[in-house]
Amino acid sequence: MTDTYARTTASTWRNWAGNVTARPVRAVSPASVDELAEALRRAREDGLRVKPVGTGHSFTAAAATDGVLIRPELLTGIREVDRTAMTVTVEAGTPLKRLNAALAREGLSLTNMGDIMEQTVAGATSTGTHGTGRDSASISAQIRGLELVTADGTVLRCSAEENPDVFAAARLGLGALGVITAITFAVEPVFLLTAREEPMTFDRVTADFDRLVTENEHFEFYWFPHTGNCNTKRNNRSAGPAAPPGKVSGWIDDELLSNGIFQVACALGRAVPATIPSIARLSSRALSARTYTDIPYKVFTSPRRVRFVEMEYALPREAAVEALRELKAMVDRSPLRISFPVEVRTAPADDIALSTASGRESAYIAVHLYRGTPYQAYFTAVERIMTAHAGRPHWGKIHTRDAEYLAGVYPRFGEFTAVRDRLDPDRLFGNDYLRRVLGD
């Protein structure tokens, strides 16, 4: 156990966006399940609460603690690739970026993923990270098993066959049930996706939304506030051959325009908000169509270097267009100046207790603002629209909902809290955020 405490530090922790800070009594980086169990035992003896943290890509205080912060950087790597079961078991602290690259070397891939891959696998699944898909759901829905260390130090192995009640909750567990140490994902042979990006008007994309979702395996779009313009993206499986973006054109689109120039535009908009509508009109008109084909993670994901804060709600899919039109009308009549596009994605229903798509086909509407920009007025107005449509907030993104509201939009909310009461009756893994969203 000496090694565990040699890796113990205490310093201020900040999330990626910089809107959440915490100062734990100590931060521990266990290198094994035994070292983790010992860190939990010591925390109980010291009367300290415990929170595992990933790479800090949540905008909420889900991982904040003034007790013991569990850092996962030593719990990384692939434990096993099972080509008979078509699964991969990976340590919880492994970044998605590393997992995707390792799977590609093995000729394998996840079926679907979100648009960034900096998070750890445990952090991403515990907060409900998702992409867009007609038939394929979130990263959590691709879990086939997991290993969880509970408050009393017990190591639980969970799957549909083993501890199925815990499995139903822990695939998206908010860090409330224990510390995940390994995850087994379903994988498939690597395949090719053809991405078709195309500008489209807001009126057309909302009028054709259901058709676009139905006709494409993965559809999403971005609306530029203060304009009637959108950019759409359709990803569908392809027989090939691979035709990735050219090095120069790819760098121009994904780095220069989407990160470098966008960073400058956001900084200018924050300093002089009156310029934002003009910048939005120029940006949206500068978009051009492009098509490329590559392996999944190179199509699904893209670099996100401009830092921001975000709110995202999952709505019943049939409510998406009405909510979007209400959102556009709100922005058009308000004095708000919004520099970031609004992102819209979809997901099929799944069977995870606290998944934002639990039991219903869903559409996701995400709003962002450049880091350092006052966001309360915009996010409050957006949240009012989303909650009127029984919206479910993304667990890792800014929202003001509490347990009373969430129990009303999640039919299996009580099932989750019952598992929590059994596994962590003393709330070793509690914090202020969990007290608000789950009750105490």
Would you summarize the structure shown here?
With 440 residues, the protein is α+β, with helices and mostly antiparallel strands. The chain is globular, with a radius of gyration of 21 Å. It is built from 15 helices and 21 strands.
Q: Could you name the ranges where pLDDT drops below 50 across 5 or more consecutive residues?
A: 1-6
Strand percentage lies at: 15-25%
Largest sheet: 8 strands, antiparallel
Shape category: globular
Distance between the termini: 33 Å
Q: Report helical residue fraction.
A: 25-40%
Widest sheet: strand ordering: 17-14-16-15-19-20-18-21
Strand runs, count: 21
Secondary-structure-based class equals alpha+beta
Give the helix tally: 15
Mean pLDDT metric: 94
Radius of gyration: 21 Å
General description of the model:
By secondary structure, this protein is an alpha+beta fold. 33% of the residues lie in helices and 24% in strands. It has 15 helices and 21 strands. It has an eight-stranded antiparallel beta sheet with strand order 17-14-16-15-19-20-18-21, with helices on both faces. Helix 13 packs across helix 15. The longest helix is centred in the middle third of the chain and has 25 residues. It starts with a helix and ends with a helix. The relative contact order is 0.13.
What is this structure's SSE topology?
Layout: H1 2-6, E1 8-9, E2 13-14, E3 21-22, E4 26-28, H2 33-46, E5 50-52, E6 68-70, E7 78-82, E8 87-91, H3 96-105, E9 108-109, H4 121-127, E10 143-149, E11 155-158, H5 164-170, E12 179-186, E13 188-189, E14 192-201, H6 202-207, H7 209-215, E15 218-223, E16 229-238, H8 247-271, H9 276-285, E17 290-294, H10 296-300, E18 308-316, H11 320-333, E19 342-347, E20 362-370, H12 376-387, E21 392-393, H13 403-409, H14 413-423, H15 432-438
